[in-house]
């Protein structure tokens, strides 16, 4: 009888430990470990890229570091190809994806987002001497270079383009510039930054979306404490002028609206 009671008590204690561990929220874990794990490409300037010294930097990277700072923890970045970033979130390899993730109805079915922190407008980019593409509708039957699962690739498909797969913005632009793809749809701010550094690149913008996409920080569903903490951090960053400082550094203006 005593052996049975001891075994039963041990089982109850073990269950309590397991239940307590499973009840720990993502925010609790972040605070207990002191690390906010963030996934990003590292190949998408000016949002996430490596500077001349090889240091990971960019608008999204600085926003991520500021959020971690407001949570009183350290930001730890994991870099990877765009097509694998969300899969890594599913596998719980990190806590969030900060990489210009557009807030779409399809993504909201499976994931949660922070409040929007930037507005992204899509532009249609072609080679300088290409006069056959002047509107998004002209993409029908043409090739367009993209990361396969990006929202821009889905937009190009809707206009009838054949997708040429790439590993990021720079490769997408390079394929257009060298004539290996007819066009690409990408972010207007990324394009402006690209032309600032490579003004002689033989590419041009021929059309742009009238309305931009809201971009948010992607997290797993069912993590309301983390979502609220990120939203509060973003609110504080904007309220104290930090957001405007970062935005002006990369774009010369406030890109939150």
Plain-language structure description:
With 257 residues, the chain is α/β, with parallel strands linked by helices. The protein folds into 2 domains: 29-118 and 214-250, Periplasmic binding protein-like II (D-Maltodextrin-Binding Protein, domain 2), CATH 3.40.190.10; 122-208, 3-Layer(aba) Sandwich (D-Maltodextrin-Binding Protein, domain 2), CATH 3.40.190.10. Helices cover 42% and strands 24% of the residues. The chain has helices spanning 2-23, 26-33, 59-70, 82-90, 105-108, 151-158, 169-177, 188-197, 224-239, 242-251, and strands at residues 35-40, 49-50, 56-57, 74-79, 96-102, 111-113, 118-120, 122-127, 143-146, 162-165, 183-187, 203-208, 213-220. Helix 3 (59-70) packs across helix 9 (224-239) and helix 3 runs antiparallel to helix 10. The model is unreliable at 2-9 and 15-22 (pLDDT under 50). It is found in: Cell envelope.
Percent in strands: 15-25%
Give the number of DSSP strands. Answer: 13
The Cα radius of gyration reads 22 Å
The helix fraction, in percent, is 40-55%
> What distance separates the N and C termini?
70 Å
The string of secondary-structure elements, in order, is HHEEEHEHEHEEEEHEHEHEEHH
Please, what is the CATH homologous superfamily of the largest domain? Answer: Periplasmic binding protein-like II
CATH topology of the largest domain: D-Maltodextrin-Binding Protein, domain 2
Question: How many domains comprise the coordinates?
Answer: 2
Specify the CATH class of the largest domain: Alpha Beta
Largest sheet: 6 strands, mixed
Report the average pLDDT across residues.
Answer: 90
Structural class: alpha/beta
- Total helical elements: 10
The second-level CATH architecture of the largest domain is: 3-Layer(aba) Sandwich
